[in-house]
Amino acid sequence: MSAAEPAAAPGDAQAPPAAAAEPPHGVLVGVDLAGIQRFIYEGRRLLDAIGRATLVADLTDTAGRHVAPLLAEVPQEHRAVLRDAGGALYVDFTDPDRAAEHARAFTGRYTRRLRDISDRLTPVTAHVPYGGPGRPADRAEALRLLPPALQSARALPAPGHLPAQGLGVTASCDITGRPAELLDHTRDRGPVRERTARDIVTARMRARQWHDANSRDWLRGIAPPAGAQRLELPTDVDHLGREIGDVSRLAVVHLDFNGLGDLLKAHHARLQESGADVSAGMRSVSADIARLTEGLARALIRSVAGAIDTDDRTGEPAIHGYGAGGRLRPRTVRGTAYVPVRPVVVAGDDLTVICDARLAWSATRFALDWLDADPASLDPRDPRAAMARRADTPPWTRRPGSSGRTTGVPSAGVGIAVQPVGAPLSVGYDICASLCEEAKDYRKSAAHRLDDHVVAWSHDFDDPARVVARLREDGGAPAPGEPGRTALPMTGTAFHAFLRDYLDPRTPGSLRGDELSEQRSWLLSRLAPLLQDGRDAAPELERRGDLGMPVKLPEPFARDLLLDALALLDLHLDVPLADRPAPAQGPEGAARP
């Protein structure tokens, strides 16, 4: 699921002089996979999405079975991998006499292999020769020109990857509606087999391999609760967010780092100015970011798994918290308790997680706190340590919150989309990705937000453009100086304060405090409509007082924050998640995700 395991940067141990590191001339090949999200979320099943995300990672894994044989055709001294993560692959071919030939052969074989796996992924390729008259002077300059070249190539799709109309087939894929090519024998459901496209079966087999190799490693050292024999990550959406007689909603949560493209450009320029090995420096920081993303996914899984306890009344596994009934019962089958959170995409700076909707806000709060950890407290082996150590190195310096300390870990944008269990994951992903972009635009609109995280969410399951349009409309004030119907997007600081002041029963005056916790019906049936319509709530509060039921709302009064909190009153389960680092690796080793 994650991007290829980051290789050590060539210049990490003892960097040679920059002039010696740069070959005199060569051809830089860039491959970018377009349509990744469409490919991953085409089906409705969690296992399909996991398998497809893993296939995308495999296609840029230079040690894997797809890319390694192609690279092996070129002598090692005449090639260098500069990037292999997040659906992108940069390879430099440096043979003095055959660099162009090697570049063409690699590109042709790679795109053919990609086509054999699935026609839903579109390879975007660009070649940038360097050295010699009329060309970039060296590899560093070619590396700077490669992203614009790939962007231009996106506008010119290859005919072989355009949709083919009018195929003469009589059977359609039960999952995607595309032409069926196989009967899926991997899902034994009696005599009737699913008719599927070939890449569906390939993805399912790859997902099972990934799950068997890595699921237990991510949960290593966390004991199952009393009443269960083992913990496992779910492979079915029905194991997430579905509880008989209770809430049946899941959340798709998308997180990526703010302004990472600009940060990498500034880092590239700084390396050039200092005379350092640009390609080694860029590969090193990309590897650090990939480790950070993977570490966050692992930490999130372990924190939720560690929160699974035992319900005193039933003896069954449960996650206890404040609000939303006070507990969540994970799916338990034959002694296996399924952890109700599952990363789907862990690649580069992208992290997409599917979880029980009741956990989404606690999980987001944990993720932001985990990223903002004090660099001085981190073990050198911690996946945050490498980026955190860049705290004093521009452009990575960031000052989170009011702590006064600095870190090199970038801030994050987060989008949360709530959807019914069983609805297409592709829609939920598109919504949360759009919300994430809206939050990031909000961050850039004011200088004081640039070092902070940003969060936006929605309960609407609709076209992403309409969801964002409603968010903007609700954020608009009915009159100058008055709040709108939502305070979203929020900065990370405001998000923490919102959960604490409005939904934590330990905070005096919160909606879950001693006084208002017994007023749920009135809050949702009478007060919320008043606030939605923009009417003054004072007469209603006075009426309640006359009936001998005084109600003191959280102060200072803020209509937008109050409405956001009321919408979460029955959904958000406030769980105190804690970081649970994995124990030291045993001698037998374990596969990495």
Question: How would you describe what is shown here?
Answer:
This protein has 593 residues and is an alpha+beta fold. It is 37% helix and 16% strand. It has helices at 18-21, 36-40, 46-58, 68-71, 99-117, 139-154, 198-218, 260-274, 278-306, 360-371, 385-388, 425-444, 464-475, 492-503, 520-533, 538-546, 559-568; strands at residues 26-34, 79-85, 88-93, 122-130, 182-184, 194-196, 230-232, 249-257, 308-310, 317-320, 327-328, 332-333, 336-338, 341-347, 350-356, 412-420, 454-458, 490-491. The chain has a six-stranded mixed β-sheet. Strand 12 and strand 13 form a beta hairpin. Residues 1-21 and 586-593 have low confidence and may be disordered.
What's the SSE blueprint?
Elements: H1 18-21, E1 26-34, H2 36-40, H3 46-58, H4 68-71, E2 79-85, E3 88-93, H5 99-117, E4 122-130, H6 139-154, E5 182-184, E6 194-196, H7 198-218, E7 230-232, E8 249-257, H8 260-274, H9 278-306, E9 308-310, E10 317-320, E11 327-328, E12 332-333, E13 336-338, E14 341-347, E15 350-356, H10 360-371, H11 385-388, E16 412-420, H12 425-444, E17 454-458, H13 464-475, E18 490-491, H14 492-503, H15 520-533, H16 538-546, H17 559-568
Parallel strand pairs: 7-13, 16-17
Antiparallel strand pairs: 1-3, 1-4, 2-3, 5-6, 8-15, 8-16, 9-10, 10-11, 12-13, 14-15, 17-18
Helix pairs in contact: 3-7, 9-10, 12-13, 14-17, 15-17
Region (Disordered): 1-21, 381-411
Biased composition (Basic and acidic residues): 381-392
InterPro entries: Rev_trsase/Diguanyl_cyclase
